């Protein structure tokens, strides 16, 4: 049984500050890099207890070089996808034939009153597909769904867990912390979080018979609202995008993989607007 893991860092237990998950911070980052890795290892252990035989892990945070390989299982059954940029970003390495996906360390979407809430980039204010406001988890789940792969586990802060379960009610959710503010949280200890994630992953494997891929029904419409006008200026330059307001662009891709690719490209080109003119 082949399982895919997409792992982020902001939703890791104890994380409440950008500095804790910024690779340039040599004081706090090493501690929370290890915490992220150990939560992923806990998910792997639970999945294997539930019957997983092959696991692909995609490091999906920041530079995408966060996981400590030596702290992951080392028996040849686990593959690690690492480094950036990746064409499919947080869902690189997911392929048809995968039985289920697990999302660990995820966080709330931009605009939510939750710790470190954002959607791919600080340049993004809101993303919607067919009018549904989307988090990274929902965007990624829909790409998995387009390949016929269901998401069966979501771990992170309570806000993203509850929101994801609203759309994916068959999945297991493990909330490792509650937001107090954007830069504060009431969190489980690392050990308690790992135990909960391991148990959750094992339970998720037992739900696979009733799990189903999450998809958006066509026709598809992608709307991106940006943090500033100049971000929309750059996004509008991409083929297939049209201006939909002072800080918004719109696209109507033919299928969901095209929509996802368009979104990733738009977020990357928007970053150019942050450079000095």
Structural overview:
The protein has 277 residues and is α/β, with parallel strands linked by helices. 29% of the residues lie in helices and 24% in strands. It contains 6 helices and 12 strands. Strands 3-2-1-4-7-8-9 form a 7-stranded mixed sheet, with helices on both faces. Strands 6-5-10-12-11 form a 5-stranded antiparallel sheet. β5 (124-129) and β6 (132-133) form a beta hairpin. α1 runs parallel beside α4 and α5 crosses α6 (256-270). It is globular. The chain starts with a strand and ends in a 7-residue tail after the last helix.
Notable features of this structure?
five-stranded antiparallel sheet; 6 helices; globular
